[in-house]
Amino acid sequence: MDADPFAAEIDAHRRYLLRIARLQLRDGDLAEDVVQETLVAALSARQSFSGRSSVRTWLTGILKHKIIDAIRQKSRRPIAAASFDDETDLETFDPMFTDAGAWEAPPADWGDPENALSRQEFMEVLGQCLERLPPATARVFMMREILELESDEICKELTITANNLWVILYRARMSLRQCLEQNWFAGAARR
Amino acid sequence: MLLHRLTHLVSCREASRLLSQREEQRLAAAERIKLALHLRACEACTRFARQLALIREALARYRARS
After folding, report:
1. By the CB < 8 Å criterion, does B36 face chain A?
2. Could you say which DSSP state residue A50 is in?
3. Per-domain residue ranges for chain A?
């Protein structure tokens, strides 16, 4: 029996899809399910693949919908609202700045950023820093930056306001920046 | 003295928030001006702006990685 080349090509992207789904959902089993559904959906909808985009882009598009469905089902459980409240209050927790609004510790000089970007280890540190974000913050940041959903789509899916969204993304970027500085750039001079 | 007042229309905290907001939407004209004046005079926030750009680029490469 001949192997189906289209099926093989789709399967080659499984690991990539799984990594995105895991980051987004923080649940290994659920991520496996979502990727499986994506691959099955892709195989049964192969005639809708136009060839205008790459197979990976097409698969990622299907995966986005599957992830959104999974998030919708999950957010029926009452976790979402409470964690967003905790994670969107800017005034109670902003240890980066003095009361007067000056940097508590000004951002360090990151040296030659191109060097970091080209290093595999840097990408691993980035992955670890993404995993350390608080769960609700991470979910929103991933929707924006990894799945590349538009801001209004995210607000609609999670029933949060544009201001909530903006605060969550700000928090995420601040934590990520600090994590990268501590875990990569602080030692950059020695690299 | 005037220059000092102009560059302190926004604090570093506000400038950092505007820089993050700028990734999502075009800022209002008044905010763009206040931010630009602040960045001209503030080395820390200029670094922060460069770091946000690096993070954006790093995430793009992260997405593209298999």
Report:
1. no
2. -
3. 1-74, 78-191
Which of B8, B17, B59, B61 is most worth mutating to test chain A (most A CB atoms within 10 A of its CB)? B59
Are A173 and A92 contacting, i.e. CB atoms less than 8 angstroms apart? no
Give residue-wise pLDDT tens across range A2-20. Answer: 578 888 888 889 988 998 8
Q: CATH number of the domain at A1-74, please?
A: 1.10.1740.10
Q: Which residue has the tokens 């007042």?
A: B5
Asked which of A124-128, A145-149, B1-5, B22-26 is least confident by mean pLDDT, the reply is B1-5
DSSP secondary structure letter of residue A107? P
Helices then strands, counting H and E runs in chain B, come out as 4, 0
Q: Pick the more confident residue, A191 or A164.
A: A164
CA–centroid distance for A169 within its chain? 11
CA angle A135, A139, A143 (to 5 degrees): 165
Q: What distance lies between CA A149 and its chain's CA centroid? A: 10
Please give the ipTM for the structure prediction: 0.90
